[in-house]
Amino acid sequence: MTRYLEDFTVGESVDHRRGHTVCTADNQMLSLLTMNTAQTHYNSDSLRDYMDGEFAAPLLNACVALALAVGLTSDDMAAAALDDLGYDALRMPAPVHTGDTVYASSEVLAVDEQPGRPDVGVLAYRITARTASGVVLTVTRRVLVKRRSHWGARDAAFDERCHRAALDHLTATEEET
Amino acid sequence: MRQYADFVPGRTFAHHWGRTVTETDAVLFATQTHQYQPALFNRRYAEHDGHDTPPVSGLLVFAIVLGLSVADLSESGGTFLGADAITFGPTVHVGDTLAAASVVVSRRPSTSRPGWGIVTWRTAGTDQRDRVVVTYRRSSLVRIG
Q: How far apart are CA A154 and CA A174, in angstroms?
């Protein structure tokens, strides 16, 4: 069920159901896709000279870690989002490596008006991402979310239109068994 | 590669390359990072939401602008310490071309890690119409000397 702005309550917490096991491709492909040339994300040999050899395995790109953490919250928090407004206080208290499984939880900080936009509002929430070893990322997000009062019927009609042909086809034809 | 001594507060960097965001980038990044906001991977839904061309996740815009800045700022350095005030301007759409520039905000020696410093930069990303699409501050450890 898509959650609209009206469905969020300040102070509520959500433990998001899905996790994501980080693979080498997440780090290498998404780092290189986004022009990130830091070798710690794609060259294991470079770690010998990095931070006095402190790390044995490549570190997950912080932008990718952020995107994965936010993504794990998106189905519950931002399915009705129209636009990202910003992020703040992004911290990574521990590195993430290939093979680590990331889970995310959220806490709603504020539900605000967006001046001049009665059809949407601003959802502010704090994201905490964890692996088996503890907290690996914290950030706050501000995102523009649709109000059900303005978008609910419109979105439902659109959804119905998108599926009508398939449903009509199924009800008009008999399954051969 | 640049070192702590190069990061004099106020020094600016115009970062290399630039990057046009394609629909492949946008959909690959959104799907591989679980961004379940349909307009990011469903053209019909993007039109329903009011976009003439598909929108691009702010997280991808942030990642590309930061990526473009790495060779100048942090490639020689140490770990990522954080980013603050990541603020988006007008929505980036498929086909837009990003450019990035940064300025050194501050630097100081690390108190917990001798031989290392903490450098903070402010970075801005723009599109081909010179609109500022993202700004943020970030800090990294950088080796001294």
A: 32
Helices A24-33, B23-32: crossing angle, 10 deg rounding? 150
Which tokens in the block code for residue A61? 């790109």
Burial grade of A35 (CB within 10 A; 0-12, 13-18, 19 or more): buried
pLDDT digits (tens, 9 = 90+) for A30-69: 999 999 999 999 999 999 989 989 999 999 999 999 999 9
- The string of DSSP letters for B43-100 reads HHHHHHTT-SS-B--HHHHHHHHHHHHHHHHTTTS--EEEEEEEEE-SPPBTT-EEEE
Contact A70 B59 (CB under 8 A): yes
Q: Of A84, A33, A83, A21, which is closest to residue A63 (Cα–Cα)?
A: A33
Q: What angle do CA A87, B112, B72 make, to 5 degrees?
A: 55
B82 to A90: CB separation less than 8 angstroms, yes or no: yes
Q: Which of A20, A68, A88 sits opposite B85 (nearest CB)?
A: A88
Nearest-CA distance from B113 to chain A in Å?
10
Which residues from chain A sit within 8 angstroms of residue B84, using beta carbons? 88-90
User: Which pair of structure tokens corresponds to residue B42?
Assistant: 């469903």
pLDDT in tens, B94-144: 999 999 999 999 999 999 999 999 999 999 999 999 999 999 999 999 999
| ipTM of the prediction greater than 0.95, yes or no | yes
